[in-house]
């Protein structure tokens, strides 16, 4: 009876997309469900997978929001070249 | 000081509704709060109840999204009759 | 397919007990499951209820741990009498 | 590698605002990240902070929704003056 | 920067084991991390996977604890043969 | 009425300690509570802070458990010097 909660930032990760696509969600759900069956023998009909998309400005890392953090990382990468 | 988090799919469960109604939310909050008082003596003003509604395509079970899972169940039920 | 997570402090709430008893856990599970059926028509076999017990010193309120907070409340009550 | 989840009601807490502002979110993210570094030495780039805003009618306390609870508190305060 | 929380009952799912083994935990972590990279391009070093094991008597389904639920299912299966 | 959940690995971060100390927990609770008051005006007695300590082998990053990940990082650092 596993319960899996996946949180990702709300943004596109495929060309032309601005959010996680239905196909990506299906792939996540299937992948996690298969994994729990293969590793632990959990019957898929007992595995709940809940995907939550979090606004970029609501997700912090490095003491700043995600967009600011990525800018910092990109700026550092520029300097090191 | 209990904390209760209720996650349900975002959909109507009453005729003509497309989402959990305000009355249903009130009933959930009151019911959970009463329950924690009756079973454990928890003072209601210390019990937080947070209801989260999750899009159907973001909730997986059986390795597929909820709408797909229900179709599978319905198809099986049809076959067995 | 509801998912309900109940967090309570790990302590006894019945005479002579130092933790939530098995009977209390059963009552919480049954109560929440019944509630979701009555209010939203959710089939009990689809409702997951997960109870988590949190050490008193890991649960804060009022800027202090739960035991300290209760002492503050008790001290205030003493003064007001 | 701390993970911090902050849930607040979705409403304005500054004059003229109807929601948590981007500046408030930044301050929460920075504050929590700094705190974990100061208290536990956790490197900020390993600390995730996720802010979730919950509709007022989805957040219960005292057996009622937050708006109803505040009305009750306000009514009591009125009576006691 | 995905965050994945996996909750399973605390029990053995391999012969002779009474809990999830370290190898199973590693397989879950690797599997989820790979999945998020393949489906969404998420860099593995940004994916946190947290496994939580929940006591059987703290996990409810069908209005009863997990052990009771399994007994009910087993009893039904017996009757139908 | 904020709810804050802090998850950290179960390990010592101060000399001679093997877990988060009571003093560190108090500092986290006070710090988060103060922060929510300063940034959003939230009354401390309404802020719940719940600290959860997660076994190192139950926390994955980079597709491996935390101890393995740290070894990888340390090995890379060695090579680069």
CATH topology of chain A: Macrophage Migration Inhibitory Factor
CATH superfamily of chain A: Macrophage Migration Inhibitory Factor
Order of helices and strands of chain A: EHEEEH
**From the helix content, strand content and strand pairing of chain A, which structural class follows?**
alpha+beta
Q: Can you give the helix content of chain A as a percent range?
A: 40-55%
Describe the overall structure.
Six copies of one chain form a homohexamer. By secondary structure, chain A is of the alpha+beta class. Chain A has one domain (3-79): 2-Layer Sandwich (Macrophage Migration Inhibitory Factor), CATH 3.30.429.10. Helix content of chain A is 41%, strand content 23%. Chain A has two helices and four strands. The first copy, chain A, has helices spanning 22-40, 66-79; strands spanning 3-9, 48-54, 59-61, 64-65. In chain A, the strands form two sheets. Chain A has a two-stranded parallel ribbon with strand order 1-2. A two-stranded antiparallel sheet of chain A has the order 3-4. In chain A, strand 1, helix 1 (22-40) and strand 2 form a beta-alpha-beta unit. The longest helix of chain A is centred in the middle third of the chain and has 19 residues, at 22-40. Chain A is elongated, with a radius of gyration of 17 Å. Chains in contact: A-B, A-C, A-D, A-E, B-C, B-D, B-F, C-E, C-F, D-E, D-F, E-F. Strand 3 (59-61) of chain A pairs antiparallel with strand 2 of chain D, so a sheet runs across the interface.
């Amino acid at each position: 009876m596993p319960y899996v909660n996946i949180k990702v930032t709300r943004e596109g990760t495929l060309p032309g997309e601005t959010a996680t696509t239905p196909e990506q969600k299906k792939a996540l759900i299937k992948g996690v469900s298969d994994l729990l069956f293969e590793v632990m023998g959990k019957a898929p009909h007992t595995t709940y997978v809940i995907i939550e998309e979090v606004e970029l400005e609501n997700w912090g890392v490095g003491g700043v929001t995600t967009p600011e953090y990525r800018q910092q990382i990109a700026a550092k990468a520029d300097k090191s070249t």
